[in-house]
Design goal:
alpha+beta, Butyryl-Coa Dehydrogenase, subunit A, domain 1, Butyryl-CoA Dehydrogenase, subunit A, domain 2, Butyryl-CoA Dehydrogenase, subunit A, domain 3, disordered N terminus, FAD, Acyl-CoA dehydrogenase, flavin adenine dinucleotide binding, AcylCoA_DH/ox_N_sf
Length: 379
């Protein structure tokens, strides 16, 4: 592929003074090369189930893994709109790397917004992020289920025990944010910040998943893992109320990865069918129209949420429509390409498996529809 030579950067007031100024734009400018590098090795990592260390390093070096670090911490301070834009593009290259990037970006964004991490621990994470990729993963129970990890107070520290399955990036995480239920007379559910190299934490390399295979979603075993009091993010009383903005960041970010994967599937299918019978034009056009509409919904709502947090309440409906559209796009693309699309020498069947797996990262459709219906009935 022939590329246009990069033009020299002309200094402007936006890129001088504060190092964070212009950092988002510089990182976005590196996106095309990063996506190409991810796509070049995605099939290999998917086939072998190997972790994409080089891909994660590439994302980090481009400044994309810390894009949402707050400006008060010296970071670019990217909002949801820029985050969604980055993740959609990364999803075109390798959905696994995009998912790992999303989880880390979400933690930095939440710290910039509500500062849940104690200052000292977050400074440690930032120091590690300057040295190299510092991935952060979250171990949460599926909606409606109790946490798989129990926290016991012992002496002057919390001790965690349990087995949390399918943790994306488990073998390469720097930190884990573990949801656990306390063994108290009145149990509380909270989050515990756990260093990946903590004594008592082990990785069971049992993952052999259908999709997102490069994400290496292994099981995490916690056996008497000691956690300091400063690393326990526990509510003082009743559980904290849901945060619509935090939910919107999570849902729209992962929906963006899904749409990026679907866009890659559609682009490959169109290239494969180029020059074929004209009967493919209209079906491809329908897929392009639906996918473009879903992209506009996600990107548009992300920008609205940056401007007005009240818009976050629309995220569940938008991510549901986006997830449906992404899945439908890939499956209908397979119908158009026939058996060729299922050939493992081509990326389309990988995109299908990745979209199926990504949808499990989002709220279940039934739960979303029930909540939307209930809101209507309640007026």
């Amino acid at each position: 592929m022939t590329r246009t030579a990069a033009q020299p950067t002309v200094p402007t007031p936006a890129t001088t003074g504060d190092p964070a100024d212009g950092a988002v734009e510089r990182a976005l400018a590196r996106l095309p090369r990063v996506v190409d590098l991810l796509a070049a090795r995605a099939a290999e990592h998917d086939r072998d189930g190997t972790f994409p260390y080089q891909g994660v390093e590439t994302v980090h070096e481009a400044g994309l893994l810390t894009l949402t670090v707050g400006r008060r911490h010296g970071g670019p301070g990217a909002g949801l709109a820029d985050t969604v834009r980055v993740l959609a593009r990364l999803g075109r290259g390798d959905a696994s790397v995009a998912l790992l990037t999303a989880h880390t970006l979400l933690h930095h964004a939440e710290q910039a917004r509500t500062a849940p991490w104690p200052a000292a621990l977050y400074r440690r994470l930032l120091t590690e992020s300057r040295r190299g990729p510092a991935l952060v993963g979250t171990l949460r129970a599926p909606a409606g289920r109790p946490p798989a990890v129990t926290a016991h107070w012992h002496g002057n520290a919390w001790r965690l025990d349990g087995r949390a399955p399918h943790c994306p990036g488990a073998e390469a995480l720097a930190w884990l944010v573990v949801e656990a239920r306390t063994a108290e007379a009145q149990p509380r559910t909270g989050l515990f910040l756990v260093r990946a190299d903590s004594p008592g934490l082990e990785i069971d390399p049992a993952a052999d998943q259908l999709g997102l295979r490069a994400a290496a979603g292994h099981d995490v075993l916690l056996e008497d893992a000691r956690i300091g009091t400063d690393a326990a993010l526990l509510p003082r009383g009743a559980a904290l109320a849901p945060d619509p903005v935090a939910a919107a960041w999570h849902q729209l970010s992962l929906a963006a990865v899904l749409l990026g994967t679907a866009r890659a599937a559609l682009d490959w299918s169109a290239g494969r069918l180029r020059g074929a019978a004209a009967t493919h034009r209209r079906p491809l056009g329908e897929l392009a129209a639906a996918l473009t509409g879903a992209e506009e919904l996600v990107h548009g709502l992300a920008a609205r949420t940056d401007a007005d947090p009240a818009a976050a309440t629309r995220a569940p409906a938008v991510q549901l429509l986006a997830a449906r559209t992404a899945g439908d796009t890939v499956q209908r693309a397979l119908t158009l390409t026939g058996s060729t699309g299922l050939d493992r020498r081509h990326p389309l069947e990988r995109h299908l498996r990745d979209t199926l797996s990504l949808r499990t990262q989002l709220p279940a459709e039934d739960a979303v529809l029930d909540a939307l219906g209930e809101a209507l009935l309640d007026g």
